[in-house]
## 1
Amino acid sequence: MSLETNLPSFITPDIFLILVGMFKAVVILLATLIFAGFLSFVERRVLALWQDRYGPNRVGPFGIFQFVADVIKLFFKEDWTPPFADKLTFWLAPVIAMSALLVSFAIVPITPTWGVRDMHIGILFFLAMAGISVYAVLFAGWSSNNKYSLLGGMRSAAQTVSYEVFMGISLMGVVALAGSFNIRDIVAAQQDGWFVFPQFVGFVTFFIAGVAVAHRTPFDLPEAESELAAGYHTEYSGMKWVMFFISEYVGLVLVSAITVTVFFGGWHPPAAFGYQLFPVIMNYIPAVVWFMLKTCFFILVFILLRGALPRPRYDQVMAAGWKVCLPLTLFNLLLTGIWILVYEPLSGS
Amino acid sequence: MNHSVEANTMTSNSFVKSLSTLKSIVWGSASQLRSMYLIFMHTFRKRDTLLYPEEKVQLSARYRGRIVLTRDPDGEERCVACNLCAVSCPVGCISLQKAERDDGRWYPEFFRINFSRCIFCGMCEEACPTNAIQLTPDFEMAEYDRQNLVYEKEHLLIDGVGKYHDYNFYRVSGMAIAGKPKGSAQNEAQPIDVRGLMP
């Protein structure tokens, strides 16, 4: 109560809570955006390390101000809309790309006390936003009125129909085990054992789908710069292009964060099947550090994937999605259902 | 009987087929994981990049870089302004004008190379009969102003002999100059007196 006595009278406890919530949301938004921008530098350095190069190392110590220089450059770029483009859709596409993935961050619980929104349909919201973000690529590809962009958009559509189905199902095993769509409940259920161990197949398939959601290299068919110029954003320049660019990194952070919260225990220290690893020591490490460490690990894995693997043809992506991943996830869901039926029937009720 | 046998072979065929599909999936995934591991191990490799302005590039002695005009061992200009370099130049970036000294030696009055056109092919060096024009292992010639890439004789002429330490054109050629009449060059016979009777 001592806090509220010092505040002006119009700030009731409710408004105070709303203000705190808004403050947290803004902090998380800014942190995500800055981190995503910084990732463009980190990725180039790390990728260079794995390709025996140096990458950008000139601006500031180790080149860490490279992304500042890039941002300044990008702000002053001409933002040109081609006369042959479909104006409204052309403008809408980058906005969707940016906002759909950023909005998904609302459901990511960072620590027990930090997070934007505690939604009881958390995972469904993420899946919905991932679905909407595909419209950005489709709109951009179609409205650019350019055959490379159109091919990129078409590939994106082909890719989407093949990964979205099994991405949803791959998360359902976890949902069944935790008994909730709420990501906070899912994290809480992993106190004594990360879901990656009982749901390893689910993790692998979700990870593969995650690469496709973020349009990262093994599945970057929509932009495939070696085949389609820049794919769906060939005609984009200036700030609109920046929004696509940043949204790729936001997607990278988002998919890593979701992987961590759903399969790797969110802010919880390592634990498997009821056993915790060095519980005394590990619990001293703050929750936020655990979350950040795990997210950064997955971001690095994504960058490693980009450095290591070639891009498949899009019929191969579709074949792998429908013929391998979908049966695997369905089988995994079936096994999970049987396990729940045998060992903890009626646990949810 | 026949039917059941057929059905049997069909099921066994599809079983073999699905087994081989499974094998290719497992094998393919293992191969992808292996390439990720191999790329990851590059973390501990030495990087190939040369940090250029700090670390200098090791150039071979025959590197074809900035063009110079050399002098003979006596310190005189080697160039005799024969124009063969200008003729051989595929981009036509060399221009010069012949002049003659009081002692009879020829020299270029001006000698100009436009390095914004030069392709460093070395044809001028090959064409030069007096080893005067030579290419050196130096490429750091960047300029902010294009006009600064036009080198005059004063920029091109160096004090040394370049790659050929002993060569002196007027010592080996039959051309007569002041102090060196016909027949006094190295390995040169006296000129034949065409009006003489002796063979």
Note: The first helix of chain A runs from residue 2 to 5.
## 2
Amino acid sequence: MALERRDGNIYYYLSVRHGERVCKIYVGAGEFARIFAEGAILRRTSRKAQREGEKAELERLEALVVPVEELSEAAEDLVRAHLVAAGYHRHRGEWRRARSA
Amino acid sequence: MPGVLELSVDAKGRLTELRTVSETAEAGDRNARKQLRRLVCSSSPEVIAEASDIAGRAQWMLVKTISAGEPLMQEALQERMHQMRAEIASENPTPLEVLLTERVVAGWLLVEVLEGLICAQYQRDVTAHRVPPGHVIQQSRILESATRRYLAAVRELARVRKLQASGAPASFRR
């Protein structure tokens, strides 16, 4: 999307991609072009703010998850260490006590 | 420098050592098993205490998030968690059982918080901006992973209880 100035007039064009080619489509001139260009800037800014808001929300969710994940990993390591120290071993995912233990 | 909701560098190092020696012992090394017994006795109480402390702080952070500063909601959640702990932990639990119970409670609370936050998005004004599908998918993944961890925590506690009941190895005795 672009506002172009030629011979003292302003023109607004939309850029549209057709495969590898990019075509310019005439939208309007003069005051109409200016209004359309300002509207496009507002829409772009609003979309950017939405994207940033969504990203911040995901980061917030992930920040809530991190301590619980760390706790889970620590608990898993500790359980495993206790079980192995007590003579257990894993057989196809199931914990079994060694006969000699 | 770890944050308040992270294990200390020392605890992380002890966990890494426990993990490494566990792997060697599981592979059949008898000396490693002896070393692991010593490590479990010397290191695990401190690590368990630190992890339990983190569990408490993580739960408090989740309570504050879901209650959005409402004291009544905070009280209700804390009472619910207190009841859960009492229901889940057996009488005279070992420190490891206490940690696993805290993990179950924290996992349950996290799932509740995530479900609440995600549901709130769908209850917004219908004329407001629609959440793009990619965002919803990412949120669902976070929730799915938290639910999986919660269920794994319940299974792990049940497994430890079952093993304690069947063999009562020394490190599990109360």
Note: Chain A has a mean pLDDT of 87.
